[in-house]
Amino acid sequence: MKFIDEYRDGEAAQKYAQAIANITDQPWTIMEVCGGQTHAIVKFGIDELLPSEITLVHGPGCPVCVTPIELIDKSLEIASLPDVIFCSFGDMLRVPGTYKDLLSVKAKGADIRMVYSPMDALEMAKKYPQKEVVFFAVGFETTAPANAMTVHQAYKQKIENFSVLVSHVLVPPAMKDVLCSPNNQVQGFLAAGHVCTIMGYREYEPLVEEYKIPIVVTGFEPVDILQGIYMCIKQLQEKRYELENQYTRFVHREGNTLAQNLIKEVFQVVPRKWRGMGEIPQSGLNLQDKYAQFDALKRFDINCNYAQEETKCISGLILKGVQKPDQCPLFKNHCTPEHPLGATMVSSEGACAAYYQYRKTT
Amino acid sequence: MNKPDSCPISKEYPQILVAHGGGGKLMHELIEKMFIPTFQNPLLESRHDGAILELGNTKLAFTTDSYVVDPLFFPGGNIGTLAINGTVNDLAMCGARPMYLSTGIILEEGLETNKLRSIIKSMGQAAETAGVKLVTGDTKVVDRGKGDGVFINTTGIGIIEHNLQICPASVRPGDAIILSGDIGRHGVAIMAKREGLSFETTIESDCTSLEKVVLEMLEANIQIHCLRDLTRGGLATSLIEIAEAADVSIQIEENAIPVLEEVQGACEILGLDPIYIANEGRFVCFVPPSQIDQTLQIIDSHMLGGQACVIGTVLETGTGVKMKSCLGVNRIVNMLSGEQLPRIC
To answer: How is B121-133 classified by DSSP, letter by letter?
Structure first.
């Protein structure tokens, strides 16, 4: 299949792995930012092709993982209200709040629907005018344009029974948070290619300058990731720090300005709490005042202040690249995809879930 | 006096979730912790697609399955064809010649009679093709809103006319694992229809009956060690179940597994792994390596597309399923909790 087979070619991958080994003469730690990249690395075994000097640590770029537990609890409360149809992407349904998840609330009778696009939720609002339709708007800059477009359409079409529970997060502030951490080990980043398809990479240039760290915008297929690692290691070995773009077939510096304008029209930048990482300044999106009528938190009077997290879970350290999933004492013993205890196990794209699913641990 | 219920499932999950029927870990927990301990007997504990009954000198295979698919009609079939082929295939996977079926049909008030007519007609045609007779049945109607149009149960009896023990316990190190064709069509066809996803070409379910190909393999004296159709949970779950039941380790190769380009494209978009997607006309068989060519030839002569292939082997040591990725790196293949859920991005 075009755009797949050539990027999953075993020979090409081996060639890149060899090229990386040839230029590496000291230990380096690189973080891949996006959960999709983590998933590919562990699933295809990309890290096992690398020389032992290179350590890949897994970043905070899984939106499902980092959605704060307080918001999950609120989603459960809203979904349980009578006359509410609660719409969500599939992988949010299994994410546990303090006591339960959306799937178990559904089993108790809540009307919860899995959708493939936020526009499906808006269509549902039109189809069931006597119901309140709520969409769980989760994601990074990648999903923000579609969610923004949906809210914009609801506004234009005056759809009054539609609202969104917003938990949007932004990548650059989280990378900055990783770099500011006192025990930071990350020496180079593979930036998330899909996010940059929308946002371009101008906003990463100040990070490169300020922290003198190489950032390579990287795709998601095995050969993409190996090429991204090669470009990053090459910079490190040559003592350069630059913004480079591996994912040229989709990403250019300016990004998709139409989508960016739509995001700015509908959303404003706000501080946001990340599950496992705590509050990060200017790291989230919320609705602009003009669209506040579509804010589910304002529409429904929800009070639940009981959010609790497992204390021994090290997901915060994993998301910051300080530790790896199999270093957690809870991993596989107490914390599994069926009973996740922290951010990095709750979604299939979380680093712990990927290790659990694909890797034999000792 | 009633004893307090000590079933661990009811403590952990006070309500049944959809995932308890998804063919993954939760469903297996339900079977292992609630059903098997309650009904315990050696036939049930063999965990096969059907039970093998010995009545005098006659060996019978006996199986049952219920069908609750939404949508009722999909490209390549409908709930009626599924209900016949699914049970016929469970009998075929026991190495039996399917003989008789029963059916229990639960209808929802308001179902259009024409729809029912065409489902029943499809059942008739599928039964004729598979050479089975539907000899007894039952019909119930539930109030509107309490069913999904039609639910169908079929139970089947088949006769075993050979002395092979076709079951996980017969799997041996060195066995070749043969896959009968490309995977993932049924699950993707259903999902595309249900969710209104449109692709450039219509993906058709692979729904078909497998008794003829199995019977020909038996007639040709293929020493079949184990057969399994790749329904809920797909190829991955079936292989994990066999590896666990046989207490062996299975090695497969990702690059050897055929997936139709349209199916792969849909999976890439939705973030799904085809090895976990349901099929309704594909199976794996475990045979001695000396009979690979003959087996492939027989399967290809029955299956459209002719893509039967060896995808792996049974190892001398270890447990579980390992898969060599397209990069040549080995990874474990684990069972999922329930059904795969499409990803956000």
So the answer is: HHHHHHHHHHT-E
The number of C-beta contacts closer than 8 angstroms across A and B is 97
* CATH 1.10.3720.10 at B41-160, yes or no: no
- Given CB atoms, is A10 within the 8 Å cutoff of chain B? yes
Whether the link from the prior residue into B42 is cis, omega within 30° of 0, is no
Contact call for B334 and A103, based on CB within 8 A: no
Which residue among B325, B330, B344 sits closest to A64, beta carbon to beta carbon?
Answer: B344
Tell which A residues from 268 to 297 touch B, by Cβ distance under 8 Å: none
ipTM: 0.86
Q: What angle is formed at CA B56 by the lines to CA B52 and CA B60, rounded to 5 degrees?
A: 25
Give B10→chain A minimum CA distance, Å. Answer: 13
Chain B, window 283-322: residues with a beta carbon less than 8 angstroms from a chain A beta carbon:
none
CA–CA separation, A266 and A289 (whole Å)? 9
Query: What tens-digit pLDDT sequence spans chain B (345 residues)?
Result: 445 456 667 777 888 988 888 888 889 889 999 999 999 998 888 878 899 999 999 999 999 999 999 999 999 999 999 999 999 999 999 999 999 999 999 999 999 999 999 999 999 999 999 999 999 999 999 999 999 999 999 999 999 999 999 999 999 999 999 999 999 999 999 988 887 777 777 899 999 999 999 999 999 999 999 999 999 999 999 999 999 999 999 999 999 999 999 999 999 888 899 999 999 999 999 999 999 999 999 999 998 778 999 999 999 899 999 999 999 999 999 998 777 877 766
Total of domains in chain A: 2
DSSP state of A156: H
CB-based contact B327 A8, cutoff 8 Å: yes
Domain interval for residue A328: 315-356
Domain ranges across chain B:
41-160, 168-333
Task: Centre a 10 Å sphere on the Cβ of residue A361 and count the other Cβ atoms it contains.
Answer: 10
Q: Are residues A218 and A263 in the same domain?
A: yes
Closest Cβ opposite residue B345 in set A9, A42, A194: A194
